[in-house]
């Protein structure tokens, strides 16, 4: 089973236009948020999400110990435990539920069709049946997407540009925790075909299988690795980076933390910013907004991080124009 952790936040919503009685009632009532993460609670990724969410709520006026607390549950990467944790949170009858990604949103959606759910990072909310449309979700679920399907092709292009010798790329993912791989394949295959790169699937179900995949790639010169958007890959980010470095496999992934931790390159949204935005939606719901009326938001900006140190260790020279486009270069 997963671990659980109580995080207490709080604050005062200072809406000056509200009647005095309503403001007094708001001060007196402690609001409860249930948060579900399919991660270990002590990982850098999990902590960055929670800190961003907490900090943004504080900026919105919710002060610790006053009118808000959060019950956070972490399944420690065990997807089979999500349903139990989701039921625990729903049984607390919170005012709002926060779901990290696809698996967490699905687990909470199975338990309630009435409590508002805000997701922080879901790749394909319509394909997963969480909402009727982006503009009008229509139910009790809304939130923020962490990726667009066309970005898959960009990952292939970046890998080929930084490591021109790349002839094949393996897509690392866990079928039980990743968004459907078909969501990304059209753009990946189109880019790979134009660059004469072969694409293969590398499904894994346990962290002990990751090294086998990367070791096999090392036996084939010209191999690269793409760590796909996946709760499993997020939980094992540091292990994947360490193995790719040990076996000298050029690797690309989506969260900025991938390159910051030693991966060759990352391109995607700033996940911490998604959870700052999610805090804004939670704030609006606590003030009376309905999830059905809050549009699902596409990524506002994408972040390119290149690890120059890793490139040099691999004997790669990153083109100056690409360095100039990077939002951050790790020296």
Descriptive overview:
The strands form two sheets. This protein has a seven-stranded mixed beta sheet, sandwiched between helices. Helix 2 crosses helix 11 (271-286) and helix 5 runs parallel beside helix 6 (185-194). The chain is an alpha/beta fold and 331 residues long. Helix 10 (256-260) links the parallel strand 10 and strand 11. The chain has two domains: 3-146 and 270-293, Response regulator (Rossmann fold), CATH 3.40.50; 151-268 and 302-330, Response regulator (Rossmann fold). It is built from 13 helices and 13 strands. It is 37% helix and 18% strand.
Topology:
Blueprint: E1 3-7, H1 20-28, E2 31-37, H2 44-59, E3 68-74, H3 82-91, E4 96-99, H4 102-111, E5 117-119, E6 141-143, H5 151-162, E7 168-173, H6 185-194, E8 198-203, H7 210-218, E9 223-227, H8 231-235, H9 237-246, E10 251-253, H10 256-260, E11 265-268, H11 271-286, E12 303-307, H12 308-313, H13 320-325, E13 328-330
**CA distance, first residue to last residue:** 40 Å
Structure annotation, total helices: 13
CATH architecture of the largest domain: 3-Layer(aba) Sandwich
Envelope shape? elongated
Percentage of helical residues?
A: 25-40%
Q: For this structure, what is the CATH homologous superfamily of the largest domain?
A: Response regulator
Number of domains: 2
Radius of gyration: 21 Å
The gist of it:
By secondary structure, the protein is an alpha/beta fold.
Attribute tags:
331 residues, alpha/beta, Rossmann fold, 2 domains, 7-stranded mixed beta sheet, 6-stranded mixed beta sheet, 13 strands, 37% helix, disordered N terminus
